[in-house]
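Incident review: delayed structure delivery

Summary: a single-chain prediction request sat in the queue longer than the usual turnaround. Root cause was a stuck worker, restarted by the on-call engineer. No data loss occurred. The affected request and its eventual output are reproduced below so the record is complete for anyone auditing the incident later.

Affected input:
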Amino acid sequence: MKTASPPGTQHPRVAARTALSTRPAPLPVKRAPARPASVPVRPTYPLKGAVDYALAVLIAVPALPLILVSMALVKITSRGPAVYSQTRVGRGGRVFTIYKIRSMFHDCEKVTGIQWSVKGDRRITPLGHVLRVLHLDELPQLWNVLIGDMSLIGPRPERPEIVDDLRVTLGRGYDIRHAVKPGLTGFAQIHLPPDSSVRTAKNKLVYDRYYVGRTGLLMDLRILFLTALKVVGLKKLYRRGPRHPAGE
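Output delivered after worker restart:
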């Protein structure tokens, strides 16, 4: 897929950085949306909602200063808002609004369109690289957990445009990941890197299916513990799961 040429009205700084960017991984070929009439949902264990809310409140207390400092640094170092919103697909196929601290140059998708981010993506600001490594850009999604759009643990929510394409490319079985609430972290997220192609999305779907079929309190607590190890750079202390989890 060819990189789109910057429009003449594009801000020169954004256009220059985009022109120098590493070619992002192309999305699947755009086809007619494959939205099913309904996406079946699965019941979760009784305490999941209460556990999500209680832990989100506990995490939000120390996270708030980090969010405010990160927002201030974003405003100082680059043009545009500190926090931005996107639509994502959640449980049952319901579309909701997600919030993130901006880690890319403002309005860069007006030039590139919707694309997966890959290693060396020049759309990411210097500060954005730090925010992403430390996962600070995701902290505003604690609000999504508090209002019930997301869980702390679950499959990572994807954008509607990408979901439509993956439903065609990977088949209707892709919607199994929408049977539960999406999460800030999850079984797939602690074992695999962020999606950058159809192949990586297919690999992650296997892990999401494994989680959906075995979700429970002990599973969630284990994922939270391993997420903490990953955030502080101790991922090597837990064994990376196989490419296809046992039982799939």
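Verification: Strands lie at 83-89, 95-101, 151-153, 183-185.
Action items: add queue-age alerting; document worker restart procedure.
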